[in-house]
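Students often ask why we bother encoding 3D structure as a string. The short answer is that it lets us treat folding as translation between two languages. Here is a chain of 148 residues written in the first language.
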Amino acid sequence: MSIIEKFPRNKAVDLAKLEADVTSGLPAMPVRAAPPGPSEPLPDYVEHREGVSRVGQLSAEAVVRDYEAAGKEIEAMGVELISAARKCEAMTAEVHTTIAFMRDTAASYREEAKRIFKRIEECALFTEDVRKTCETVKRRIMEDRSIA
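And here it is in the second language, the structure alphabet:
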């Protein structure tokens, strides 16, 4: 039987019967009362006003405690952010040290290249001098043969 058939429009709804029908299909759940515990004091930035009902006070306390818990979590994230910033600063310092080392290494390579460049050109000039000397000696020998 559908709910529409069970409760026609022109008939009044028996809420007790409706609740019994709905809950009859649910498994029994044990009812546990929250243990009364010492409530934490309210944060310093709020205080109850005179004349507010107990329900209003409890609702306001619950909301402010939720906000306070969120505020503490936000502050904890700030601590983590400071830690991350310190790690970034340390890494940045290491990067600057590494860049300085790389610049020094590059300068050393350039100095070595300059030294090798000069040495090769010196060898090339020396080789040219040796070749010219050899040609001169060879020419003299040929001239001396042709004279004799």
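Translate back mentally: The chain is about 75% helix and 0% strand. Keep this in mind for the problem set.
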